[in-house]
Structure formats: structure tokens, C-alpha cells
Automatic annotation (TrEMBL):
InterPro entries: DNA/RNA_pol_sf, Hepadnavirus_pol/RT. This is Uncharacterized protein. It comes from the Eukaryota. CDD domains: RNase_HI_RT_DIRS1 (cd09275).
Length: 357
């Protein structure tokens, strides 16, 4: 059962919206009158608050500078909202009286270091670090910039459920989120989850950049790519350290072309619509996965470049040495991932590139 606007009300709203939009100026009283027509529509139109935010802002600012009957210019933002009420709102007419059970449920958290999110249904995790510019924002901004369902940030709950709020910067983030959701016929509800219970995303948001997130300096990667590539796929990457547009993540991650490199074949392109020739891969695996990586390279005859620490005592080092590969000393080539505030390790290992031709 849904709550919908009757036909006669729809006609009245469209008429009033066209009437207001046809003018260059309007008084706060006239704007308030139009908002009065829309006041009850939140029960039937999901984006009602989203599509009246500019109208309310203009009315309130105008009253601060004058009285109810002083005409004020109608802004472009208000005109955009009026166009919505001139017809587009009909597509959103109808809202369940009893909210359905959510098809997807998630939680997120944001710290000064980074952000973390977790989807209960898919078990997908998302974690990353803020750039210096992003880290300078308030905690409310950092929290809103995430996709979330459950959060321990009370203002975030309010801005999402009310489709905006008084702070323009935060309201714009909420607006973008809702426009994205509405375009995909998704309804969002935010719920407060006490911080003591929000342990998973909180931990993810404070992880920062672990060793497995570090990357090879882009200039060194570029040199190797020019001489021994072009590489098509970055087999061990994340949102913070991928070197190629096509990359594979260790776990489910937004932007990844595939998940779990070890579940894929390394002898041909991993994705459709690629050349049938043997692909060349960029491989910079986590240190504890190097032996497994070398074993798979041996089994499948993988082509590309493998980068490892220059550790002759490691169990995989003699195996690579016996393969008669060209190898290149890279020195201190490992750096923290992009957009990370993590400091470089005091004594990072020397690195070596193994050329698999």
C-alpha cells in the first residue's frame, strides 16, 4: 500500500510551479505559499526535501535582509527545483506506507586517517586514506563522503535522512548521494549505530597504509613499463596503489576489474574485448604471497614483471634466480600509497624487478 498525490493536487502543484518559474522575482511570502503546497508531499515524494532545499534557503536569506513582501531575484538553483515541480515529480509519486525491509545494509566510519565501510550482505569491505585536503575537513564531512547505512555520526544520519541541512558543504554531499540513489531507484535510510558497536568500519577507517598498500615509485614503474611492457593488468592492487587502469584487488573493492588474482589465469587477458595475445602483467604482490606468486608463474608461464624485496635469503629468491631471468636492482623503490599521510618507513627494503619475457 502506498501514499500517492491525487490528480487534482498534481495539477495544482504544476500550475503554481509554472507560475512562479515564469517570473524573475518573487516575494518570500509567495515562496512560502508555494512551499506550503508541497509541505505534506514528503509522505508521497521521496525527493521532496531534496527538491525544496534551494527554495527554503532563498526564503530564509531574503527574510534576513528584508520583509515578507520585498521581491527578490529567483536563483538558478530555485529555477531548477521549480522545473522539477512542473512535471518531473510525477515519476516519483507514490511511497510505501510501511517501509520495506532493506535489500542492502551497510555500515561505515571515518577517522582522521581514512575511511572504512562494510556491506553485511556481500561481505564487501572498503577502506582508504584521505588526501591531505580531505583530511582537513570536519569529521562530519568525512563521514558524509562515504556511502553509509549505519554510522556512529549523528549529523550524518540527519543530513542523509533529511536530504540535506543548514551547512552548505555537507548538504551538497547529501544531495549528490541522493541524486545518485534516485537515478538508480534506490531509497536510503541512515540509522545511528553507537561507536562501541561500529567496530568493523571503525577499524577499517583507522588502518592507514599497511605494507601491502605500499607501491613502487611511479617513475620506476613507468621506466619498466616502457622497457618491458606495455603491461595490461596490475595483478595486486587497491584503490590506493594501482598503477594501471585495469587492476585486480585482493578482496572486493570498488573500481577493481577483478578480485583475487590467484583465482584467475595469468596466461591470457583477464577481461573480455582484449587482444587474444598473451598479456603482460605488472606484479607487486604482498610479501607473504611472493612464494605463491612464483609457483603460479612457473605453472602458467606468465609474462611481465615481478617486483620483490631484494632478499637473497628468502625461500623464493633461489627459485627466481634459477629461472635465468633478467633482474634489475631498484634500490629503495617502495613508497606509501597515493593520497596517504603515512610517513615513509625508516628502512624500507631494497627492491628487485624480475623480467619475465
Amino acid at each position: 500500500m502506498t501514499f500517492s498525490i491525487p490528480t487534482n493536487k498534481i495539477k495544482k502543484i504544476k500550475y503554481q510551479a509554472r507560475k512562479l518559474a515564469s517570473r524573475d522575482k518573487a516575494t518570500p511570502r509567495e515562496i512560502a505559499k508555494f512551499l506550503g503546497y508541497l509541505n505534506y508531499l514528503a509522505q508521497a515524494i521521496v525527493p521532496e526535501r531534496l527538491r525544496t532545499r534551494a527554495l527554503y534557503t532563498l526564503k530564509d536569506k531574503s527574510l534576513q535582509m528584508g520583509d515578507w513582501d520585498t521581491p527578490i531575484p529567483i536563483t538558478n538553483e530555485v529555477q531548477e527545483e521549480l522545473r522539477f515541480w512542473m512535471g518531473e515529480f510525477i515519476m516519483h509519486n507514490g511511497k510505501p506506507l510501511i517501509p520495506p525491509e532493506p535489500a542492502m545494509e551497510s555500515a561505515s566510519d571515518a577517522s582522521k586517517v581514512g575511511y572504512g565501510a562494510y556491506c553485511y550482505q556481500t561481505k564487501m569491505q572498503l577502506a582508504g586514506v584521505w588526501s591531505p585536503e580531505e583530511a582537513a575537513h570536519s569529521s562530519n564531512w568525512r563521514e558524509l563522503e562515504d556511502w553509509l547505512h549505519h554510522t556512529d555520526n549523528t549529523p550524518t544520519v540527519a543530513y542523509i535522512n533529511k536530504q540535506g541541512g543548514p551547512i552548505k558543504e555537507l548538504s551538497e554531499i547529501a544531495r549528490r548521494l541522493w541524486l545518485w540513489a534516485i537515478a538508480r531507484n534506490i531509497s536510503i535510510t541512515a540509522a545511528h549505530l553507537p561507536g562501541i558497536q561500529n567496530t568493523g568500519p571503525d577499524k577499517l577507517s583507522r588502518m592507514g597504509a599497511s605494507w601491502k598498500e605500499w607501491m613502487i615509485q611511479p617513475t620506476i614503474f613507468k621506466m619498466l613499463n616502457q622497457q618491458y611492457g606495455p603491461f595490461e593488468i596490475d595483478l595486486f592492487a587497491s584503490t590506493m596503489n594501482y598503477q594501471l587502469p585495469t587492476w585486480v584487488s585482493l578482496t572486493k573493492m570498488l573500481g577493481a576489474s577483478a578480485v583475487d588474482a590467484f583465482s584467475l589465469r595469468w596466461t591470457s587477458p583477464l577481461l573480455e574485448n582484449r587482444s587474444p595475445r598473451i598479456a603482460r602483467f605488472w606484479m607487486f604482490p604482498p610479501f607473504n604471497q611472493i612464494l605463491r606468486t612464483v609457483a603460479k608463474i612457473n605453472r602458467e608461464g606468465t609474462k611481465g614483471v615481478l617486483v620483490t624485496p631484494d632478499w637473497p635469503a628468502a625461500p623464493w629468491f633461489p627459485i627466481l634466480s634459477q629461472m635465468n631471468l633478467l633482474s634489475i636492482e631498484l634500490g629503495k623503490a617502495m613508497i606509501p600509497p597515493r593520497n596517504s599521510q603515512a610517513k615513509a618507513h625508516k628502512d624500507p627494503p631494497n627492491m628487485r624487478a624480475w623480467i619475465l619475457l
